[in-house]
Amino acid sequence: MNKIIKKCCGLPMAIISIAGLLVSYRTSESKEMWERVRKSIGTHMESRPTLEGMKQIISLSYNHLHHYLKGCMMHLSFFPEDYVIVKNRLLKRWIAEGLVAEIQGLTLMEVADIYYNELVRRSMIDRADDIISWRDGKVETCRVHNMVYEVMVSKALDENFISLVGGPYEGMSYGRIRRLSIHGGEEVASIKTATSHGRKNAIKEMKMEHVRSLSVFDLNHIKVLDRLGEFSLLRVLDLEDCMGLEDKHLVHVCRMYMLRFLGLKGTYITNLPPEVGGLENLETLDVRETDLRDLPKTVSKLEKLEHLQISNKEYTECWIARKGLGRMKALRMVNTIVFGNDYAAAKELGELQKMRELALDIRDPDNPYHNDVRGTLARSLSKMYSLRWLSIGSKVCRDNDTLDFLHDLDMPPALLQYLKIGAGINKLPNWISSLNNLVELVIAWTYFVGDQLFGPICKLPRLKYLRLGSNCYKDTELVAQTAHTFPALKYLFLNFNIESMEAVRFEENTMTELETLSVSFWKGELNRVQGMKNLASLQEVQLAGQKGNPALNCAMEQLKTLNEKRPGNQMKVAVQYQ
């Protein structure tokens, strides 16, 4: 081992890459493999460490990957350098590209997750900061070290795995194009094709008939969008944040009958044509943060669709559940679907037995039949045994009983890891205390009093993240009592917007494992945070609010005093002024 480290010349990236390789060879029979690795590094790296020497070590790590991981690594060259990649987006793309093999007893997403974790373990992919949002909870992201990225681009180009256009790839020459990723605007998006005899050509001169995968990053107006009708064999189309996309382009998209992945997040489309129902091979549809107001009824014909995400730029949910929902039995994730007065849709929801992630928005409180529909929803949710992630709330209903039907679940989803309750309910359901797999809980707009908030959840054995949002509580003081042990709680986020709230208080020996406390101060409420000294494991406090807010200033002074009393164990304090 010392000889190998010596050859890395103390360079952190070289050591990390080699460590990621050697971690797979830890048995007693691995000595021979370690010796082969040492010899493979080469002597010139030891005497003259260079960028090329670093790339040699990264290439060595890549060459020792299993064959099924090499394609996943080359696929990272689709994204621009330094791009922060949302993990779930990456995994779904791997699947659509055919890079993930089936394993009996596991879903393809579970297999892809195994691939991802292996690449992280080998330091080929770096975890990035999680994105924390009230809407989606904790969203994992990743990135690739610049040097690893360069090596992956080089290998992907050498093997004709991908064709890159724009930015640093301007003027590169390609033959048959199968996977195309465009990293720049039209002004830099030019290319030399194999038949152009070295003459620079714009994208309009490229041959698109063999392209299987197209990704466009950060573009406004580019000719490739006007040529979408030529991509007849496309399986992956990722146009996330492509501002140049217009409704007229979707006519061509709806004729891509082999399409498996369609990413239109962050675009300005206003209407999805009914012909989208003809994309019989589609597995992923992402139309979040668009200008859509609904999906066409024909979407129920997408019987292979597994992942559906939809919202508009106003962050209002806009897919209204209708009769025919039960045809979409392949669905594993839906975020978000609106339930109003359609009894048939509420009943058919229970037929989606593969569902793992589900976000519901409840509407039509004035409908005289809404109790029948909600009772049916309760029966349907009781049948969804595979649920791991459930968000249920209402953007329009602020009644205290909007979610009371949750008390009527005969069989709560025992495998739940994430739960968000975001509308009125008279108390937390009794079954919530039985959710032994629950890791993350979000509560808002419930108007609880007394011990209704902490009491039912304080014994959950795996609850790690607790986020308390607007109007989740309406008493003047919220108390974390000594009896509220929260055995696994690491992160508590308080984002109250309640004028009556005067204090949050932590008693001795409460939340003994809490490491991070985040508090957002709003004008006119939450005057005090008391007892932070009683949080024995607290390591970080995040504060947010307007400059000059008395409650914020008081908390800062309290933390300053606490840190003065623990010089060898200082808490990290971060303040964000809004």
Automatic annotation (TrEMBL):
- PANTHER family in alphabetical order: DISEASE RESISTANCE PROTEIN RP (PTHR23155), OS07G0197300 PROTEIN (PTHR23155:SF1005)
Source organism per UniProt: Triticum turgidum subsp. durum (Durum wheat)
| One GO BP | plant-type hypersensitive response
Query: Domain named Disease resistance R13L4/SHOC-2-like LRR: which ranges?
Result: 210-546
Q: What is this protein called?
A: NB-ARC domain-containing protein
Q: Name one Pfam family in it.
A: WHD_DRP
Give the InterPro entries listed for this entry: Disease_R_plants (IPR044974), LRR_dom_sf (IPR032675), LRR_R13L4/SHOC2-like (IPR055414), P-loop_NTPase (IPR027417), WH-like_DNA-bd_sf (IPR036388), WHD_DRP (IPR058922)
Show where the Disease resistance protein winged helix domain sits.
Answer: 79-150
UniProt keywords, alphabetically? Plant defense, Repeat
Q: What is the lineage of its organism?
A: Eukaryota, Viridiplantae, Streptophyta, Embryophyta, Tracheophyta
